[in-house]
Specification:
The protein has 347 residues and is an alpha/beta fold. The chain has helices at residues 10-31, 59-62, 70-78, 148-156, 188-192, 195-202, 213-216, 222-239, 260-280, 292-296, 300-303, 312-330, and strands at 52-57, 86-88, 181-182, 206-210, 244-248, 287-290. The longest helix has 22 residues, at 10-31.
Length: 347
Protein backbone atom coordinates (compact mmCIF):
# COMPACT_ATOMS: atom_id res chain seq x y z
CA UNK A 1 0.00 0.00 0.00
CA UNK A 2 1.34 3.36 -1.01
CA UNK A 3 1.36 6.04 1.68
CA UNK A 4 0.73 9.49 0.21
CA UNK A 5 3.51 12.06 0.94
CA UNK A 6 2.47 15.25 2.63
CA UNK A 7 3.66 18.40 0.87
CA UNK A 8 5.23 21.15 2.97
CA UNK A 9 2.98 24.08 3.57
CA UNK A 10 3.60 27.65 2.31
CA UNK A 11 4.92 28.74 5.71
CA UNK A 12 7.61 26.03 5.73
CA UNK A 13 8.69 26.90 2.16
CA UNK A 14 8.95 30.58 3.07
CA UNK A 15 11.15 29.80 6.08
CA UNK A 16 13.46 27.60 4.01
CA UNK A 17 13.76 30.27 1.31
CA UNK A 18 14.58 32.93 3.89
CA UNK A 19 17.35 30.78 5.37
CA UNK A 20 18.86 30.17 1.92
CA UNK A 21 18.85 33.89 1.11
CA UNK A 22 20.39 34.74 4.47
CA UNK A 23 23.19 32.23 3.98
CA UNK A 24 23.88 33.47 0.44
CA UNK A 25 23.96 37.08 1.60
CA UNK A 26 26.36 36.24 4.43
CA UNK A 27 28.72 34.44 2.06
CA UNK A 28 28.66 37.33 -0.43
CA UNK A 29 29.32 39.94 2.26
CA UNK A 30 32.22 37.91 3.66
CA UNK A 31 33.74 37.42 0.22
CA UNK A 32 33.54 41.08 -0.74
CA UNK A 33 34.80 42.78 2.43
CA UNK A 34 38.34 44.00 2.84
CA UNK A 35 40.21 44.27 6.14
CA UNK A 36 38.84 47.73 6.80
CA UNK A 37 35.25 46.57 6.65
CA UNK A 38 34.39 48.19 3.30
CA UNK A 39 33.66 46.48 0.00
CA UNK A 40 36.82 45.25 -1.78
CA UNK A 41 36.96 46.17 -5.45
CA UNK A 42 39.27 43.26 -6.23
CA UNK A 43 36.49 40.78 -5.42
CA UNK A 44 34.59 41.93 -8.52
CA UNK A 45 37.03 40.11 -10.79
CA UNK A 46 38.46 41.36 -14.09
CA UNK A 47 36.85 44.53 -15.44
CA UNK A 48 34.89 43.84 -18.62
CA UNK A 49 34.93 47.46 -19.74
CA UNK A 50 38.26 48.96 -18.61
CA UNK A 51 38.35 52.74 -18.52
CA UNK A 52 40.74 53.71 -15.69
CA UNK A 53 44.25 54.03 -17.16
CA UNK A 54 47.46 54.87 -15.30
CA UNK A 55 50.36 56.19 -17.41
CA UNK A 56 53.58 55.56 -15.49
CA UNK A 57 57.11 56.57 -16.38
CA UNK A 58 59.86 59.14 -16.20
CA UNK A 59 60.51 62.48 -17.90
CA UNK A 60 59.37 61.21 -21.31
CA UNK A 61 55.90 60.66 -19.86
CA UNK A 62 55.72 63.53 -17.39
CA UNK A 63 56.91 66.10 -19.89
CA UNK A 64 58.28 69.56 -19.14
CA UNK A 65 56.59 72.90 -18.72
CA UNK A 66 55.33 73.99 -22.15
CA UNK A 67 54.90 70.46 -23.54
CA UNK A 68 51.65 68.93 -24.67
CA UNK A 69 53.04 65.45 -23.74
CA UNK A 70 52.07 62.17 -25.39
CA UNK A 71 49.46 61.78 -22.65
CA UNK A 72 47.56 64.68 -24.25
CA UNK A 73 47.50 62.98 -27.64
CA UNK A 74 46.42 59.62 -26.19
CA UNK A 75 43.62 61.23 -24.17
CA UNK A 76 42.23 63.17 -27.13
CA UNK A 77 42.34 60.03 -29.25
CA UNK A 78 40.64 57.74 -26.70
CA UNK A 79 38.14 60.00 -24.94
CA UNK A 80 35.60 60.13 -27.81
CA UNK A 81 35.73 56.31 -28.04
CA UNK A 82 35.79 55.16 -24.40
CA UNK A 83 32.84 56.22 -22.28
CA UNK A 84 33.92 57.27 -18.80
CA UNK A 85 37.63 57.24 -19.68
CA UNK A 86 39.69 58.25 -16.67
CA UNK A 87 43.45 58.79 -16.49
CA UNK A 88 44.50 58.17 -12.88
CA UNK A 89 47.63 58.71 -10.79
CA UNK A 90 49.18 60.75 -7.98
CA UNK A 91 50.44 63.66 -10.11
CA UNK A 92 49.02 66.21 -12.54
CA UNK A 93 51.80 68.68 -13.43
CA UNK A 94 54.60 68.72 -15.98
CA UNK A 95 58.16 69.16 -14.70
CA UNK A 96 59.41 72.51 -13.52
CA UNK A 97 62.98 73.72 -13.90
CA UNK A 98 64.02 72.60 -10.42
CA UNK A 99 63.04 69.01 -11.28
CA UNK A 100 64.97 68.76 -14.53
CA UNK A 101 68.21 66.79 -14.75
CA UNK A 102 69.74 66.84 -18.26
CA UNK A 103 70.45 63.41 -19.79
CA UNK A 104 73.95 63.14 -21.29
CA UNK A 105 74.21 62.97 -25.07
CA UNK A 106 77.84 61.79 -25.27
CA UNK A 107 79.87 59.26 -23.32
CA UNK A 108 82.16 61.82 -21.67
CA UNK A 109 79.31 63.82 -20.10
CA UNK A 110 78.62 63.34 -16.39
CA UNK A 111 75.44 61.50 -15.54
CA UNK A 112 73.24 63.24 -13.00
CA UNK A 113 70.70 61.56 -10.78
CA UNK A 114 68.12 62.72 -8.25
CA UNK A 115 68.97 62.15 -4.60
CA UNK A 116 66.70 59.17 -3.99
CA UNK A 117 63.27 58.76 -5.53
CA UNK A 118 62.08 61.91 -7.37
CA UNK A 119 58.68 61.34 -5.71
CA UNK A 120 60.12 62.61 -2.45
CA UNK A 121 59.14 66.22 -2.08
CA UNK A 122 56.56 66.04 -4.86
CA UNK A 123 53.68 64.40 -3.05
CA UNK A 124 54.61 60.82 -3.92
CA UNK A 125 54.58 57.73 -1.76
CA UNK A 126 57.73 56.11 -3.04
CA UNK A 127 61.07 55.54 -1.42
CA UNK A 128 64.45 54.50 -2.71
CA UNK A 129 68.06 55.51 -2.67
CA UNK A 130 70.64 56.52 -5.22
CA UNK A 131 72.11 53.37 -6.81
CA UNK A 132 75.12 52.15 -4.85
CA UNK A 133 77.25 52.06 -8.00
CA UNK A 134 76.30 55.61 -9.03
CA UNK A 135 79.10 58.18 -8.93
CA UNK A 136 78.44 61.37 -7.00
CA UNK A 137 77.05 64.16 -9.18
CA UNK A 138 79.14 66.72 -7.30
CA UNK A 139 82.80 66.87 -6.44
CA UNK A 140 83.62 66.39 -2.77
CA UNK A 141 82.76 69.48 -0.76
CA UNK A 142 80.80 71.10 -3.61
CA UNK A 143 77.28 72.20 -2.61
CA UNK A 144 74.29 70.33 -3.98
CA UNK A 145 71.90 71.91 -6.44
CA UNK A 146 72.70 73.58 -9.76
CA UNK A 147 76.12 75.12 -10.24
CA UNK A 148 76.36 78.66 -11.70
CA UNK A 149 77.42 77.15 -15.04
CA UNK A 150 74.40 74.82 -15.06
CA UNK A 151 72.03 77.64 -14.16
CA UNK A 152 73.43 79.67 -17.05
CA UNK A 153 72.95 76.67 -19.34
CA UNK A 154 69.33 76.29 -18.19
CA UNK A 155 68.67 79.99 -18.81
CA UNK A 156 69.88 79.53 -22.41
CA UNK A 157 68.04 76.23 -22.92
CA UNK A 158 65.40 76.13 -25.64
CA UNK A 159 62.35 75.08 -23.65
CA UNK A 160 60.19 72.34 -25.15
CA UNK A 161 57.17 74.58 -25.70
CA UNK A 162 57.81 77.84 -27.53
CA UNK A 163 55.59 79.62 -25.03
CA UNK A 164 56.71 77.70 -21.96
CA UNK A 165 58.27 80.09 -19.47
CA UNK A 166 60.74 78.20 -17.22
CA UNK A 167 59.34 79.68 -14.03
CA UNK A 168 55.74 78.57 -14.60
CA UNK A 169 54.03 75.17 -14.56
CA UNK A 170 51.65 74.76 -17.45
CA UNK A 171 50.92 72.52 -20.39
CA UNK A 172 50.97 73.89 -23.90
CA UNK A 173 47.38 72.69 -24.21
CA UNK A 174 45.65 71.76 -20.92
CA UNK A 175 42.59 70.22 -22.60
CA UNK A 176 43.00 66.64 -21.34
CA UNK A 177 42.86 64.53 -18.16
CA UNK A 178 46.24 65.41 -16.61
CA UNK A 179 46.48 62.71 -13.90
CA UNK A 180 49.56 60.53 -14.29
CA UNK A 181 52.26 58.60 -12.43
CA UNK A 182 55.50 59.85 -13.98
CA UNK A 183 58.44 61.86 -12.64
CA UNK A 184 61.56 63.33 -14.18
CA UNK A 185 64.61 61.18 -13.39
CA UNK A 186 62.61 58.25 -12.02
CA UNK A 187 64.17 54.81 -12.27
CA UNK A 188 62.47 51.45 -12.53
CA UNK A 189 63.96 50.55 -9.17
CA UNK A 190 62.50 53.62 -7.45
CA UNK A 191 59.12 53.11 -9.10
CA UNK A 192 58.91 49.47 -7.99
CA UNK A 193 59.03 50.60 -4.36
CA UNK A 194 55.81 52.63 -4.63
CA UNK A 195 53.75 51.10 -7.45
CA UNK A 196 51.79 48.69 -5.22
CA UNK A 197 50.39 51.51 -3.09
CA UNK A 198 49.81 53.75 -6.12
CA UNK A 199 47.80 51.02 -7.83
CA UNK A 200 45.91 50.17 -4.62
CA UNK A 201 44.93 53.81 -4.08
CA UNK A 202 44.10 54.81 -7.67
CA UNK A 203 42.82 51.39 -8.86
CA UNK A 204 43.64 51.53 -12.58
CA UNK A 205 42.20 48.86 -14.85
CA UNK A 206 45.23 49.26 -17.13
CA UNK A 207 48.82 50.27 -16.34
CA UNK A 208 50.91 51.66 -19.23
CA UNK A 209 54.61 51.75 -18.31
CA UNK A 210 57.62 53.38 -19.98
CA UNK A 211 60.55 53.13 -17.56
CA UNK A 212 64.16 51.91 -17.45
CA UNK A 213 66.32 54.36 -19.36
CA UNK A 214 67.45 56.15 -16.18
CA UNK A 215 68.54 52.83 -14.62
CA UNK A 216 70.54 52.02 -17.76
CA UNK A 217 72.59 55.22 -17.54
CA UNK A 218 74.58 53.39 -14.82
CA UNK A 219 76.59 50.14 -15.18
CA UNK A 220 73.72 47.81 -14.19
CA UNK A 221 73.61 44.10 -15.07
CA UNK A 222 70.90 42.41 -17.10
CA UNK A 223 70.12 40.20 -14.08
CA UNK A 224 69.51 43.24 -11.88
CA UNK A 225 67.29 44.88 -14.52
CA UNK A 226 65.27 41.69 -14.84
CA UNK A 227 64.80 41.64 -11.07
CA UNK A 228 63.65 45.29 -11.08
CA UNK A 229 61.19 44.70 -13.91
CA UNK A 230 59.69 41.58 -12.34
CA UNK A 231 59.48 43.33 -8.99
CA UNK A 232 57.64 46.26 -10.58
CA UNK A 233 55.06 44.09 -12.35
CA UNK A 234 54.47 41.82 -9.36
CA UNK A 235 54.18 44.79 -6.99
CA UNK A 236 51.64 46.46 -9.29
CA UNK A 237 49.61 43.25 -9.28
CA UNK A 238 49.67 43.16 -5.50
CA UNK A 239 47.68 46.42 -5.66
CA UNK A 240 45.18 44.96 -8.17
CA UNK A 241 45.36 41.25 -9.07
CA UNK A 242 43.26 41.87 -12.22
CA UNK A 243 45.45 44.64 -13.60
CA UNK A 244 46.12 44.72 -17.34
CA UNK A 245 49.66 45.92 -18.12
CA UNK A 246 51.50 47.35 -21.15
CA UNK A 247 55.30 47.58 -20.73
CA UNK A 248 57.18 49.64 -23.32
CA UNK A 249 60.75 48.98 -24.36
CA UNK A 250 63.28 51.77 -23.86
CA UNK A 251 63.38 54.31 -26.67
CA UNK A 252 66.70 55.08 -28.40
CA UNK A 253 68.43 58.25 -27.21
CA UNK A 254 71.46 60.15 -28.52
CA UNK A 255 73.81 58.74 -25.87
CA UNK A 256 73.68 55.31 -27.53
CA UNK A 257 75.55 56.71 -30.55
CA UNK A 258 78.72 57.38 -28.53
CA UNK A 259 78.43 55.06 -25.51
CA UNK A 260 78.64 51.42 -26.58
CA UNK A 261 78.10 50.15 -23.04
CA UNK A 262 74.85 52.08 -22.71
CA UNK A 263 73.70 50.92 -26.14
CA UNK A 264 74.32 47.29 -25.18
CA UNK A 265 72.41 47.70 -21.91
CA UNK A 266 69.45 49.16 -23.81
CA UNK A 267 69.50 46.25 -26.27
CA UNK A 268 69.65 43.67 -23.47
CA UNK A 269 66.91 45.36 -21.46
CA UNK A 270 64.54 45.52 -24.42
CA UNK A 271 65.04 41.79 -24.93
CA UNK A 272 64.16 41.32 -21.26
CA UNK A 273 60.99 43.39 -21.59
CA UNK A 274 59.68 41.01 -24.23
CA UNK A 275 60.71 37.89 -22.32
CA UNK A 276 59.45 39.02 -18.90
CA UNK A 277 56.13 40.25 -20.30
CA UNK A 278 55.51 36.87 -21.93
CA UNK A 279 56.58 35.00 -18.80
CA UNK A 280 54.50 37.01 -16.32
CA UNK A 281 51.35 37.32 -18.41
CA UNK A 282 48.32 35.47 -16.99
CA UNK A 283 44.65 35.19 -17.88
CA UNK A 284 43.70 37.28 -14.84
CA UNK A 285 46.43 39.89 -15.38
CA UNK A 286 47.80 39.91 -18.94
CA UNK A 287 51.08 41.69 -19.72
CA UNK A 288 52.03 42.80 -23.22
CA UNK A 289 55.29 44.39 -24.37
CA UNK A 290 55.44 47.36 -26.70
CA UNK A 291 58.24 48.31 -29.10
CA UNK A 292 57.45 51.97 -29.74
CA UNK A 293 60.62 52.60 -31.74
CA UNK A 294 60.12 49.60 -34.02
CA UNK A 295 56.42 50.22 -34.60
CA UNK A 296 56.72 53.94 -35.29
CA UNK A 297 60.16 54.29 -36.89
CA UNK A 298 61.65 56.34 -34.03
CA UNK A 299 64.26 58.84 -35.24
CA UNK A 300 66.24 60.54 -32.47
CA UNK A 301 67.06 63.81 -34.30
CA UNK A 302 63.55 64.18 -35.73
CA UNK A 303 61.52 62.99 -32.74
CA UNK A 304 63.34 64.60 -29.78
CA UNK A 305 64.27 68.18 -28.90
CA UNK A 306 67.46 67.32 -27.00
CA UNK A 307 68.44 63.82 -28.07
CA UNK A 308 66.23 62.23 -25.39
CA UNK A 309 62.87 63.87 -24.73
CA UNK A 310 60.08 63.74 -27.31
CA UNK A 311 59.10 66.81 -29.28
CA UNK A 312 55.64 67.14 -30.89
CA UNK A 313 56.54 64.46 -33.45
CA UNK A 314 57.82 62.06 -30.80
CA UNK A 315 54.82 62.66 -28.55
CA UNK A 316 52.50 61.67 -31.38
CA UNK A 317 54.44 58.48 -32.12
CA UNK A 318 54.42 57.34 -28.49
CA UNK A 319 50.69 58.05 -28.16
CA UNK A 320 49.99 56.18 -31.41
CA UNK A 321 51.96 53.11 -30.30
CA UNK A 322 50.17 52.91 -26.93
CA UNK A 323 46.77 53.52 -28.56
CA UNK A 324 47.35 50.64 -30.98
CA UNK A 325 48.53 48.38 -28.14
CA UNK A 326 45.45 49.17 -26.04
CA UNK A 327 43.12 48.57 -28.99
CA UNK A 328 44.76 45.38 -30.21
CA UNK A 329 45.67 43.90 -26.84
CA UNK A 330 42.75 44.92 -24.63
CA UNK A 331 39.99 46.14 -26.96
CA UNK A 332 40.17 49.69 -25.61
CA UNK A 333 39.28 52.20 -28.31
CA UNK A 334 40.53 52.00 -31.87
CA UNK A 335 43.95 52.23 -33.48
CA UNK A 336 45.53 55.66 -33.94
CA UNK A 337 44.66 57.40 -37.27
CA UNK A 338 47.30 57.01 -39.96
CA UNK A 339 49.38 58.50 -41.45
CA UNK A 340 50.74 60.26 -38.39
CA UNK A 341 51.23 64.02 -38.47
CA UNK A 342 54.96 63.87 -37.66
CA UNK A 343 58.22 65.35 -38.87
CA UNK A 344 59.96 63.51 -41.73
CA UNK A 345 62.86 61.24 -40.82
CA UNK A 346 66.25 62.97 -40.71
CA UNK A 347 68.95 61.99 -43.14
Amino acid sequence: MTIPQRRPGPLVLACVLALVLLAAGTLYWTATRDDSGGPAREAEGPVDDPRRIMLAGDSMTQGANGDRTWRYHLWNHLSPQVEGLDFVGPYTDPATRDMILPVPTTEDEAVQTPEGDPAEGHGGDGGGDTPSDAPADRASGEPSGFSPEELEELEEMVWPGADGAPDTVEYRDPDFDQNHNALWGRTLRDAAASIQEEVRVHQPDVLCVMLGVNDLLWPVTAEEMEYRLRDYVESARAGNPNLRIVVAEVLPIALAESDEGFALRVYAYNELVREVAADLSTDASPVISLDVAGREGWDVPADTYDGTHPNASGETKIAAAFADALAQGYGIGFGFPRPLAVRPRSE
